[in-house]
Structure to design on (127 residues):
């Protein structure tokens, strides 16, 4: 089980049945953080809190930016999940972080189709 730091949480039980972004972002506190390679690789961890329902797919994305209020861009993404089949309560999605990332990071997701339910909690983790 990965260690979870309260300062590395993007959201808690946030509805994700429509496209959106995390309620919080993380400030890595340096302009050019070097995640680097190592034994323990950092990743975006997404936990499904409420199972997804409906007919649609969802992709989870890690985004970064140089400034808190600037334009965020995708730096890595999950595969496209068949939400109501693959994202049941307790399901877990991991998206590796790139070696180089900018100071501010957040989570975004894109829903295609119609989902009537589904919520997630997400954080940065190392494992």
């Amino acid at each position: 089980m990965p260690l979870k730091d309260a300062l590395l949480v993007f959201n808690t039980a946030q509805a994700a049945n429509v496209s959106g972004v995390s309620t919080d972002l993380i400030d890595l506190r340096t302009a050019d953080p070097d995640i680097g390679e190592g034994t323990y690789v950092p990743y975006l961890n997404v936990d499904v809190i409420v199972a997804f329902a409906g007919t649609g797919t969802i992709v989870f994305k890690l985004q970064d930016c140089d400034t808190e209020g600037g334009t965020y861009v995708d730096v890595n993404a999950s595969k496209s999940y068949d939400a109501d089949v693959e994202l049941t309560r307790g399901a877990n999605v991991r998206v590796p972080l790139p070696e180089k990332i900018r100071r501010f990071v957040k989570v975004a997701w894109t829903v295609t189709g119609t989902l009537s339910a589904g919520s997630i909690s997400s954080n940065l983790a190392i494992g």
About this structure: Strands lie at 9-15, 20-21, 26-27, 42-65, 73-77, 81-82, 92-96, 104-126. The mean pLDDT is 91. Residues 20 and 58 are 11 Å apart (CA to CA).
